[in-house]
Amino acid sequence: MTGTVIRNTGSFYTVATDDGCEVQAKIKGNFRLKGIRTTNPVAVGDRVELDGDAGAMPFITAIMPRKNYIIRRASNLSKEAHIIAANVDEAFLVATLYHPVTSTTFIDRFLATAEAYAVPATLVINKVDLCHYDAEREEYLEAVSYLYRSIGYRVMHTSTLTGEGVDALREAMAGKTSLFSGNSGVGKSSLINCLIPGMELRTAEISTTHDTGMHTTTFSEMFALPGGGAIIDTPGVKGFGTIDFDAAEVGHYFPEMFKASSGCRYGDCTHTHEPGCAVREALEDSTISQSRYASYLSILADSAPDKYRKPF
After folding, report:
1. Residues tagged in the binding site annotation for Zn(2+)
2. CA distances from residue 134 to 37, 128, 145, 192, 201 in whole angstroms, order as listed
3. Residues placed in the known binding site
4. Which of 30, 261, 278, 290 stands 20 to 30 A from 135 (CA)?
5. For the segment 118-177, what is each residue's pLDDT rounded down to a tens digit?
6. How many whole angstroms separate alpha carbon 96 and alpha carbon 290?
7. Alpha helices (H) in the chain, listed in sequence order
8. Average pLDDT of each block of 10 consecutive residues along the chain (312 residues)?
9. Per UniProt, where does Zn(2+) bind (predicted)?
């Protein structure tokens, strides 16, 4: 029996079988994928094979080859990865510029990871109603949008309060298996409630003390979209740690740096200190942004071999 994993609670998996049923399944304790050290060997979106005795909960016995997947570091001091989702047509990173603030470092780390794992990505700036009618906030919204559009990313503006951009987002996701990711409190659940009438996912107020979101989604789950396609909703995360990046290739995942690097004097230029570095020249003349370069350096630091070495 084969099917697609549509829910992962940590202990059990819900699989939508190819014959139209939904079954609860589990994995054996020694089930691991070769070459990938992860906290969750099976992810939402995985195509799997099931086996089990009649009347008993089936076991997931195999994962079919993945088209792609996207992962992040499981924790700040871990060498293990957490697979966010598999077999994704497009990743939609939901961010907010106010209440709460999504840092550009978080955005850049997510986009670089999507590039590394061959997942097309769109930046969705939500709660744009908080920017309208305030000249300074509106200017910042336009600056952030211009930055990522100039690199080549699609940037969408949405508001569940006013409905702005929701129809355009629905159209962009039609017929696709789309990943929804972002910090806690950016409004992923509220957007899904707008996209899927009657869904009524639980939402929570933003903390007034720290201006941060509180987790309302506790596990990953796939929801069918009216008219075709699906959304993979994921728990909100505070940070986005990269993993298994070769330091020499990090610049490849920043499209504007990769383009500029063709002019570097050395083919193995790290864009940090070498003479004749076209990337740093582009940084000086502002064709590469300071914020993007800072994010690049932070991922290089992640790739340092001793970063996650445990102290004696």
Report:
1. 264, 269, 271, 277
2. 47, 11, 16, 27, 30
3. 126-129, 182-190, 264, 269, 271, 277
4. 290
5. 999 999 999 999 999 999 999 999 999 999 999 999 999 999 999 999 999 999 999 999
6. 20
7. 104-116, 135-151, 166-173, 188-195, 255-260, 278-284, 290-302
8. 91 92 85 64 93 81 92 65 91 96 94 93 98 96 98 98 96 96 92 89 50 54 93 79 78 96 94 96 96 95 57 34
9. 264, 269, 271, 277
> Two tokens at 206?
């933003």
Domains of the chain and CATH, by start = 2-63 (2.40.50.140), 69-233 (3.40.50.300), 247-302 (1.10.40.50)
Report the amino acid identity of residue 277.
C
Binding-site residue set for GTP: 126-129, 182-190
